[in-house]
Amino acid sequence: MKVKDAMHKGVDWVSPEIAVTELAKMMRAQDIGSIPIGENDRLIGMVTDRDIVCKGLAEDGFDSRTATARDVMTAGIHCCREDDDLAKAVRHMEELKIRRLPVINKNMRMVGILSVGDVSQSAPAELVSEYVKKVSAHHH
């Protein structure tokens, strides 16, 4: 099974200058927990709902009216290819202890995101249970 068979398609990135409040509204409207950040036609980071809370709201002096994606994003993106084997991508997610992985095509364009939910719906059960055990252990 390939990554493209399980991933969430139709994902766009947003500018690092977008307001954090706009990111939060997009997350609520689309019922998603992360938004990729792109600049100069390249994927440069990711903002998760957790980033907004931990790197934003929990910080002294954080001003939600002026904060941008760049202020709270996790820079340095790990990604996988749409043609990668799904098990390989899942192992990559396990190693990084992440729940979402951007997916690129051979032209380096982002074509989707692979999430824990996508994997659990599409992947063989044994692959899912191993992944869930490893990623969940990180959060105890």
UniProtKB/TrEMBL annotation:
Residues 7-64, 73-130 form the CBS domain. The keyword Metal-binding does not apply. SUPFAM superfamilies: CBS-domain pair. Transmembrane segments: none annotated. It comes from Mesorhizobium delmotii. InterPro entries: CBS_dom, CBS_dom_sf, Diverse_CBS-Domain. This is CBS domain-containing protein. Keywords: CBS domain.
